[in-house]
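I am still learning, so would you mind making up any protein sequence you like and the tokens describing how it folds?
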Amino acid sequence: MAEYDLLIRGASIIDPRKGENQKKNIAVREGKVVSTGDRRPEADRVIEAEGCMLSPGFIDTHMHDEDIDDPDTTQKALLRQGVTTCIAGNCGVGPLQDRIRPSRSDPWLNIGYLTGHTALRQEVGITDKERYRPANSQETAKMKDLLTEELEKGSFGLSFGLEYNPETSWEEIIALSEVVPSFEKRWISSHIRHDGPRCLEGVDEMIRLAGYVNARVQLSHLGSMTSFGFAEQALEMLHKGRENGLDLTWDSYPYDAFCTFIGSAVFDPGFEERFQKPIDALEVGSGPYAGQRLNSDLLETLRKEAPGTLVIAHVMNEKEMKLILKDPSCAIASDAVLFEGRGHPRAAGAFPRGIRWLREEGLSWSEAVAHATLIPSMMGWLERGEIREGMNADLVIFDPEKFCDMATFEDPLKPPRGIKYVIVNGKIAVKDGEVASDPAGSFLVRS
């Protein structure tokens, strides 16, 4: 019997903590990393990786995988771009644990879920048509009990989608958020209440929340909310909050276009003035009209007849998006959301693209990769994001000369270039863009 299950030879190993690369052999046994130094031991499988880089698997703390009937499309798209661990259930839509677990018993990557505020509202009888009203005291009390049960079952925390439920009261937010600190290593993520001109009000609301409940608060896709002339101010506010002892984190994706459902409150009347962009800056992202630019008639038709249609809004300032992503505390996140296999290219390209952006901004490989590994790992207390003895063998092997995103708005699921292998829990999950026949991931719960 061979000494190891897998041996990777000759790669330049990226260390995001020490900020250096080192060439040595790495072995895997029973799903864990075992460093072998310069020895050349026997293994059941050997990967010759001369000329390649070996990175910790990428960690996506903000993605969407709540469609119970489609467990594969989004996960496989993320897996092909090197994501080995992710947290779903963001923006308030995280499903209840008992409903999602049966369909995710064998995931393609390691995946855990937040519990969504919107899902809790629906569970106590507040329908989508009632999204413009706050919960009453009885409904809030029921939601608190439900959230407590969810956290006891292993949910990673609470997520808000305040722009989607714009009249949610401060009292409702506080009542639910106060449940979270009672459980170890849980956090609150939030799609803030406003984008565009009022975004700093939304940022300030989450800073106040972090101080009020003494819990970690993660601001979701910060770039897409503030890159309308306010990104620099938003970062200054968040760093000042940290200096004052608040536990604040944030993520962003590397595109100047966001994507969400056309029936949401995001596209209520007045959005053109808010974004300072014409209606044809919006592109249909799913359904029979995918690829078409919106006009007033199509907007009205889709909001009335197909509110679940995804729309891609080309409205953000790319320079500000890069400013936020480059911030030393910002994690790369995909915000991947697909509908019937269509949507935004971030689902298939966010991590290679984000690392490329950071490299173009002058960061070293280890500094750039930290935004995809160590930083999100620390944000979620995930004990991943590094290659060292005893860690889960979640790894990415790529050719640094070819490493590049290929997904486009016309072809949103096109896999990236240059990724040779993706390894999940010690098993080869992707080889040269092809996903293995058997899933290697695990359903994550927080005990």
